[in-house]
Write a structure and sequence with these properties.
single chain; Fumarase C, Chain B, domain 1; Fumarase C, Chain A, domain 2; Ribonucleotide Reductase Protein R1, domain 1; 20 helices; 4 strands; 4% strand
């Protein structure tokens, strides 16, 4: 029975060694499961009554008692007891204190093994929904900035070197594309968490006539798990969710890195709002992009959480093992890290002020329209490799003179290759160069606007 000895019961004469008890206890972190544990227990109790395994009166008392215990634990009126090991035993012990013998009937046809598996799936499903909302919030901030800066031109980069002119909106929407994939991965992980393991017992189900489907329906699960051994030892859903979280945090890290670079005096492309910067304890002039740096730095926590989860389950025999307790903290930490970073990223993106003139001026240095010369020649029937060589030669010629390609006179272009004509001047205009890339996924104005419209429509169809 439940009580000060928790799950040890009368099988044991004494208590755990104090150091062992401290290591064994999970109440310091699994109290996060309280609302899910209570929801699962209420659904279980109502099913037991429907099956005639407990009385309707006991089920009603259990449900009311569980809600009361949850409220009092949340409010701090009841203290968590580490001697009771975990959230499950704490809730059950407090329930028995509150309603008496009826509370002892709650655990009929149930083990903590299928109980915690159920709680964790409910947690993962709820966490995924919150993270999807957070991702959509960041995407809304990105697309708002993108619409504002449809006509802002900037250098696109490869190897962190200026490469070709693009639209700032197109650059921002690249991060939306990443986050859209992250959203899909998290939703997909949630779908695989959406099966109820309750009824699997410790490992081999129960001989009592329970109704697993009824409990699954009451908890909003899409169905039940199909193998009791797998169900109590499965943490794939947590591993998948944390893997998706880690990749989303990698994408936020990339965004944070670019913002850090762009705020430097060397770039000077953007100013981050003061609410997302901090100063120096020594240098009064400093305004440091600390929050962008934290978006970049927090990725280590989420990747570490995924590695921890994979390491814990590696080599575990069926079915439940205490090692699985170690899957909880990395799951919670990964969820809470990404959730916090998404909230900061959304506000930070809203706060960004871009130096449009400086971005535009950066296009005019570095021969960013060299590819246009090659493409121009291709339209005149020149093979691309020959055109590429010609354009490279002209870049070398211009660089040697300290001028840009557009400053080379037509007769010099024709001296390098006779296919050049007067209309080549239009190909050297960066704005026209961007708009010539008029293909799905490209930076042309109409393509970027179409993508903004598509994203806004998709976000409008999603709950805020």
């Amino acid at each position: 029975m439940s009580g000060p000895k928790g799950a040890r019961g009368r099988r044991f004469e004494g208590g755990l060694d104090p150091a062992a008890a401290a290591l064994n206890a999970s109440i310091g972190f699994d109290r996060r499961l309280l609302p899910h544990d209570v929801a699962g227990s209420i659904a279980h109790a109502e099913m037991l009554a429907a099956q005639g395994l407990i009385s309707a009166e006991d089920a009603a008392a259990i449900a009311a008692g569980l809600r009361s215990v949850a409220e009092r634990l949340t409010a701090g009126e009841l203290a968590w007891d580490e001697a009771l090991e975990d959230v499950h035993m704490n809730v059950e012990a407090r329930l028995i204190e509150e309603i008496g013998d009826a509370g002892r009937r709650l655990h009929t046809a149930r083990s903590r093994n299928d109980q915690v598996a159920t709680d964790l799936r409910l947690y993962a499903r709820a966490a995924a929904a919150r993270l999807i909302d957070g991702i959509d919030g960041v995407r809304r901030a990105l697309v708002t900035q993108a619409r504002t800066h449809v006509d802002t031109l900037m250098p696109g980069y490869t190897h962190l070197q200026r490469a070709q002119p693009v639209r700032l909106a197109h650059h921002l929407l690249a991060y939306d594309a990443m986050l859209e994939r992250d959203r899909g991965r998290i939703a997909d992980a949630a779908r695989r968490a959406d099966r109820s393991p309750l009824g699997s017992g410790a490992l081999a189900g129960t001989t009592l006539p329970i109704d697993r489907a009824r409990v699954a329906e009451a908890l909003g699960f899409a169905g039940v798990t199909r193998n009791s051994l797998d169900a109590v030892g499965d943490r794939d859903f947590a591993i998948e969710l944390v893997a998706a979280i880690a990749l989303a945090q990698v994408h936020l890290s990339r965004l944070g890195e670019e913002l850090v670079l762009w705020t430097t005096a060397e770039f000077g492309f953007v100013r981050i709002g003061e609410a997302y910067c901090s100063g120096s304890s020594l240098m009064p002039q400093k305004m440091n992009p600390d929050l962008a740096e934290l978006l970049r730095g927090k990725v280590g926590r989420t990747i570490g959480a995924w590695v921890t989860l994979m390491t814990v389950v590696k080599g575990l025999p069926l079915a439940y093992n205490k090692d699985l307790q170690e899957t909880q903290e990395p799951l919670y930490d990964a969820v809470e890290t990404l959730e916090a970073c998404l909230a900061v990223a959304r506000g930070m993106i809203d706060s960004l002020e871009f130096d449009v003139a400086r971005m535009r001026a950066a296009i005019d240095e570095g021969h960013l329209v060299a590819t246009e010369l090659a493409d121009y020649l291709v339209t005149r029937g020149v093979a691309f490799r020959e055109a590429h060589d010609v354009a490279g030669h002209l870049v070398r010629l211009a660089a040697g003179r300290g001028v840009e390609l557009a400053q080379l006179p037509l007769d010099e272009l024709r001296a390098v290759h006779p296919a050049f004509a007067a209309d080549v001047a239009g190909w050297l205009d960066p704005a026209r160069a961007v708009d010539r890339r008029d293909l799905v996924g490209g930076p042309a104005r109409n393509q970027v606007l179409a993508e903004i419209d598509r994203i806004e429509a998709a976000l409008a169809a999603s709950p805020v």
